[in-house]
Structure formats: C-alpha cells, structure tokens
Specification:
By secondary structure, the chain is mainly α. The chain has helices spanning 3-16, 31-43, 47-60, 66-80, 84-97, 104-118, 126-142, 149-176, 180-185, 201-204. Helices cover 67% and strands 0% of the residues. The longest helix is centred in the last third of the chain and has 28 residues, at 149-176. This is Lipoprotein.
Length: 208
Amino acid sequence: MTKKTLLLLPLLFFIGCSSKNEVTHSENLTALSWHYKIYKDIQNTNLDQADEDFISLEAEHPASIYIKTDLLNLFLAHQQLKEYDLALFYLNEYEKRYASVQEIPWIEYQKIKMNYLKYSNPYTNQQMLLNLITMCDNYLKKYPNSNFSPEVSTILAKAELTNKYLDAKISNLYKKLDKPKASELYKVKIPNNSKPPVIPWYKKLFYW
C-alpha cells in the first residue's frame, strides 16, 4: 500500500466525523489560514502537506466556506500529477457535499476521463476496461446532450477497440492451450484499418 493510498484512510475518517478534540497535531489556525496554507502547498507541489493541512481544516473548521474550494483545488492538483485515486476521492467528496445539478455531467465526465487515464496497461485488467465501457454507456444515455458527450464517445470507442484486441489475445491463448471451445468464446472480428494498443517494448515481455 503506497503512502498516497494510506492518506485516504485519515481523510475518510476526518471527513466522516471531524472533531477538534481528536486532532493531535493541530496548529489552531483560522479557516482562512489553513486555506492559505493549502493553496501554498499546492503552488509548491507539496501535495502530501496539502492533504494533511486539509485534514486539519476539516477537523478544526468543519463548516468552513473554504472546504468547497479546497476540495476542487486538491482534485485538480492530484489529477495534474496523475494521482488519480486521490483526485477521484476529492472529486467524489465535492460531488457528494457541494455539487449542483448543473455540475454533475462535468463531474461524471471527469470520473470517466480519470478511469480511462488510469488504464495504462493494455491487455490487462479486463474488468476495469469493461467497467469503463459501462460508465461511458451510462453517461451517454443519461446525458446525451452534454458538452462532454463527444469526448466520452471517443473514450468509449477506444475502450471497446482495446477490449476487442484483448479478447483476440485471450482467444489465441486458449487456441495455443488446445482449448477450442474457450478460444471460440473469445473470438472477435477486429475492425479493418484499426491499430492495436501501443505498449512499451519492455512490457511486451509479459504479454502472451
């Protein structure tokens, strides 16, 4: 478990039940001071400290008007550094607590985009790929007129094509293992003029 993942545990605890008496390293700052510290942390790309300072803001000032802004700022900062799990955490908190109806299509699009970016190893984790396809399908049905629908459609097309190549790989593997029924089950038709997902040469050593 990485340090970034471990940070989710105290965040979940304090956001769920903030209590000033439970903070052991409080600096007893005003909400504005914590907000400014978080801003400076982000400016200095010190997101570990920004996460910790946000915990303190939440614990000491659970009704602060700055929490809404800081949730979005931390989402964007972690997203920029490709720390997608933490970015999704902050975005989910923002959606749950502050998002307006008009913001939901943008938020759900951001979730799709980050799940797409997280899928960095083609030919692995097919369930993650199928979940992404389902997310895209649901989005296009629910928000057909969204400004982000074209981007979601593009992600969906790429995910579906990647899934076809993955199925073809699985089919070939079963064929090599002399399991024709299983091979036939995964057999798919690859679209003409399409290109397989690109993977670094050193990762190809671990694929079939």
